[in-house]
Structure to design on (332 residues):
């Protein structure tokens, strides 16, 4: 029997519908349920062939549970090792190497020093930073400032001048922030990508109140939609996410990726709406069943992105395999 589990927190609607959908398909030897986390001794296997993780970003205990499960062969969605390592600045950096348009971005050291550090801990950091030059390089105001590792629109600021910029920065305590060109967009999309192949492009309007954000219908060309589809696959293959959303802001026909590090994206029927919800439930169920059926007992059943795979082989991203320069030193 291959068990599929879903690990979640306060979330309602999606987890229940997912379990029900998998089970309603009556696939021989495949069953889904809410994960039950038992007492956890090191190295013991998990009873699940597949776990959909919707909550370990908020519960470090679950993240550690999932790493052990993966070590014992569970296909954890998303890969808990990569998710732990990932953040928005790196994703933007990687995007510049694989041809994904992203807003120009600087990484800012945190306003306050992290706990147990002092000025001496920062002797390597140039001080003061050249704020005027950074703003100029970003094309001037307005700008966005947001955490390099965050979500749920927390600590996201749009600033129109230096006063607003520093007022916002002063509120961010020890968060590491991105300072980013604001894309003044004509259309905005939120795209689900499941299993590195199922893509759903949802017309979105982030300037609407929360409950109306998915009530949008953007008049853009078929070619642009096809281009975004390809970019969604490209970035998810590079990062190795099985379950993620990519947001695009379209300015003058160019789709800029704004937020594409969403390994537990909102799937609640009350926010995404009935049709999108149905798509997510059906495709997540199919993906999980495929993972369960191809699951190799005790093997490494995680998805690893091409960036990590390439790194193991000494390849830099964006270079073709035959001609790529080796980054590691090879023994002669
Ligand atoms: N560079 C940007 N240009 C235009 N809009 C942005 C930019 N960055 C963020 N936003 C807006 O702010 C919202 C929240 O930012 P986002 O990067 O998605 O953070 P979070 O991960 O907290 O959701 C986005 O949905 C978008 O509407
Ligand atoms: Mg977002």
């Amino acid at each position: 029997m291959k068990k599929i589990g879903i690990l979640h927190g306060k979330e309602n609607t999606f987890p229940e519908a997912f379990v029900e959908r998998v089970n309603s398909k009556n696939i021989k030897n495949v069953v889904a349920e809410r994960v039950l986390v038992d007492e956890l001794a090191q190295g013991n296997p998990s009873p699940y062939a597949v776990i959909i993780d919707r909550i370990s970003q908020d519960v470090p205990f679950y993240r550690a549970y999932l790493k052990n499960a993966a070590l014992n062969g569970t296909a954890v969605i998303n890969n808990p090792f990569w998710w732990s390592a990932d953040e928005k600045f790196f994703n933007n950096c990687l995007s510049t190497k694989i041809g994904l348009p992203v807003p120009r971005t600087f990484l800012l050291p945190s306003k306050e020093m992290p706990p147990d550090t002092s000025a001496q801990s920062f002797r390597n950091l140039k001080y003061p930073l050249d704020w005027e030059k950074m703003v100029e390089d970003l094309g001037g105001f307005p700008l966005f400032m947001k955490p390099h590792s965050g979500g749920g629109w927390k600590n996201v600021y749009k600033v129109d001048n230096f006063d607003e910029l520093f007022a916002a920065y002063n509120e961010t305590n020890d968060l590491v922030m991105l300072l980013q060109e604001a894309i003044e967009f004509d259309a905005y999309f939120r795209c689900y990508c499941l299993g590195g192949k199922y893509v759903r492009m949802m017309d979105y309007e982030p300037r609407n109140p929360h409950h109306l954000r998915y009530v949008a219908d953007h008049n853009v060309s078929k070619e642009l939609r096809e281009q975004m589809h390809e970019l969604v696959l490209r970035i998810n293959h590079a990062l190795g996410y099985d379950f993620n959303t990519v947001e695009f802001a379209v300015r003058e026909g160019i789709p800029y990726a704004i937020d594409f590090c969403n390994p537990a994206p909102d799937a609640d029927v009350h926010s995404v709406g009935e049709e999108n919800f149905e798509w997510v439930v059906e495709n997540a169920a199919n993906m999980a069943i495929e993972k369960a059926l191809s699951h190799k007992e005790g093997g490494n059943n995680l998805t690893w992105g091409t960036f990590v795979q390439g790194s193991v082989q000494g390849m830099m991203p964006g270079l073709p395999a035959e001609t790529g320069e080796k980054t590691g030193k090879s023994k002669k």
Observations:
- The chain has three domains: 2-85, 87-102+183-262+302-332, 104-181.
- Residues 247, 259 surround magnesium ion (ligand 2) (CB under 6 Å).
